[in-house]
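Notes, Module 5: Reading structure tokens.

Key idea: the token line is not a picture. It is a compressed description, and you learn to read it the same way you learned to read a sequence, by spotting repeated patterns. We will look at two proteins. The first is printed below with its tokens.
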Amino acid sequence: MAISSAMQAAVAGLSANSKAVGKVSENIANSNTVGYKRGFASMVTSSGGASSGSSVRAETRQEVSGAGQASTTTSANDLAISGEGFFVVSKNPNDPIESNYMLTRAGSFVPDENGYLRNSAGYYLAGYVTNEDGSLGAVDYTNFSSMETVRVGEVSLAADATTTGQMDGNLPAAETGTGTATSPFVSTMQYYNSLGGTESLSFSWQADAAVENRWQATVTGSDGTVYGTVDVDFNDSGAFAGSPASFTGTADGGLAAPAAFSVSAAGVMTITIDNGTTPQTIDVSLGTVNGYDGVTQFDGEYTPQTFDVDGSAVTLLESTEFDEEGVLWGVFDNGTRSALYQIPLAMVNNPDGLAVADGNAYRLSRDSGDMILTTAGANGSGSVTSYSLESSNVDVAKEMTDLIQIQRAYSSNAKVVTTADEMLQETTNLKR
């Protein structure tokens, strides 16, 4: 190798090792950065031809596939992935430009001023909106087109009108057939209308003074409308003593349409309430014939009736929580728990081939291979852990060792340059 070639190789060594020390510097600076992936420079032989010999160049890489340690936090919106996979994030909420979507392991998400979950790098978490029953509709798992930005602010459940009710309680058998009228027992069932408001139905239970084991319930609305009556005869002996034997309903003669009232032989009152453009119909079960799942009649004290109704008022989101499959659950102020979003994980064939972007994010590239989106825990992906963040995968001790080795290599290449320079100087002096 000529002296000039030696100097060129040494200069190339200086350049390559300067890149290497730059990567070490970046690693040490980001050793406490959430989700940071260690970068490094690989030295590759560079041939300058037969006359100039071999040189060197530095190829920089990012150790994206290496996972960092998980650390515990106090926020439910801090997410870590235990295993393979990446969160999908975008530059803007509901970004329509697919090229603005990236992958990241930095899961330190907090709501912005509009309730959208955004991480510390300013990227927004993307997911799939779930249906009311928690299922997903038709989504495309091969691209980002079906995804929306996850929003936890101003979420509410719409009002759900009551459609069914169930009552139970005990009526005192000694009150019937006494020949003397007694005061009725009154109970009230609260229900929800279509706008989420509460209304009520009143049940006035009157013991039949002439007939033993018979009670008559009069049903009245909160507006004073009398819908009708139902006679309930109870079994007084045998295997089904104390349970209803029959139900006989009669609608009030002055009830105006569309309001309506009827009672089935199975003990279900169907009450049509004129409280909106579309009347509300509620099926209220008194219990079953020869059954103890509703109203009963035994000796003893009156047991106030209780009611179990469906429906709800408008409810506001109180808190959120993630499960291991990446489902974001909303806990509402009425105690209801409902799935809001499915947070998928992105899987690529070669994570180390992803293109590095700012903010600990990565873009798909030819080297990374194809991407699929999948539910956490499926198709080889990891699980999502809430109240946790992934630390950087930088080992500071190793970086310091690499730093010493790079420094020695750099100094040695610098020595080659100065030596070659002195030798060239000697060659120049031969002319004198």
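Here is the second protein, with the sequence above and the tokens below, as before.
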Amino acid sequence: MTSSDDIAALSATELLEHFRRRTVSPVEAARAALARIETLNSTFNGFCFVAPDDTLAMARASEARWRRGEPLGLVDGVPTAVKDQWPVEGWPTRRGSCTTTDAASPDDCPAAARLREHGAVFVGKTTCCEFSWKGVTDSPLTGISRNPWDPSKTCGGSSGGAAIATALRLAALNLGSDGGGSIRMPAGFCGIFGLKPTYGRVPAWPLSAAPTTSHTGPMTRTVADAALMLTVMSEPDPRDWLALPPQKIDFRDGLEAGVAGLRIAYSATLGHAKVDPEIADTVAAAAQVFADLGAQVEARDPGFANPQDVFEMFFFTGMAATLDGIPAARHGEIDPGYLRCAALGRRFSGIDLIKGWGARDALGRHMNGFHQQFDLLLTPGLPLPAFAAGIEFPPDRGCRSWFDWSPFCFPFNFTQQPAASVPCGFTAAGLPVALQIVGPRYREDLVLRASRAYEAVHPFKLPPR
């Protein structure tokens, strides 16, 4: 294999096999990723920081280990990118904000630390909106990030750069975070696979502005790569006291088991969402695939009211708390939308939040009960295709915030359930459509297994760039 683009198009799983056979080297893989970043990033703005010398040094060390037959771990040599929300040792962490500095981070975040321990080759930091606050990726610091299928459209957010890096083959493994849809929204708009694991499955530090709803997870081109990445990142880290108990789980096990016999509910609207007809038809066809594969699929809404108002209270108060840590003299440098939402967050009292916990508790218990009847829940990932880049929400839908166009995402941050965005087709205009697969807490294995069953009969497509 001699083409740089061919090497960049290999999945992590494929790259590892080439490394074993010595038909591709980690240095070749790193150079291929860096070459595509150099060519494409000025158009799509997926990366905000690249350090080629650091990347190639990591790749050379990996290559030497493979030559000795001593790979360091499960992802040794694989080009990997980290959302700029998260620290990587020796690199700046700007979080999309002009109020941060270029100071080198002293430590890796837990997920990056585990990936480094397993030999991942970091190719850079990917763009996010300021402090990961909204469903699209633009910021005062890094500008507008764009959809790999159509650069006039949004890539979604807040992990938009990670979705771009995945779709354009700029990195095989990409680390994202999801506090209200921030993995699944860009995955859906960009046509890649994204998994929000159970809350606490992947240790996180430092905590985000949404400390009890933010999940850390993989964004990849294949389900197998997500299972591999999750296996690595879910190893324990003492810095996250809210993380799940340490478990030795290889999420690749059982990935090909299929869905025959599973009890699956399909909800087209969750009982309250407005979905574009083209999206609804595409997702309904995807749900039928699971029935064709032997699952028991039943049209059933999960039966809860829209929790948006309560979720926004939690989210906006967290934004206000983050803003309090920034000197008032610098607030003029911050995204005006962030300031608006933080101001809304200041309206709520501690008593309001405690009452909100009651509503959240009721929703979590409701979904625990729902999954006594159904192994999985299928929904649309998003109710609309990607809209124009550079705006928070489309002007013709009566939206007041990005939460209005993400009704299928944030409820499952409240309930802390695993949920995946699975590419399932395209609109007539050629923009990706996504199916969401939601599982009971702690059952990423079921979500991955179902995602792989769909992928096996409908392989994911990437933009022809």
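Summary for the second protein:
- Residues 4-233 form a domain with the Amidase signature (AS) enzymes fold (CATH 3.90.1300.10).
- The longest helix spans residues 350-373.
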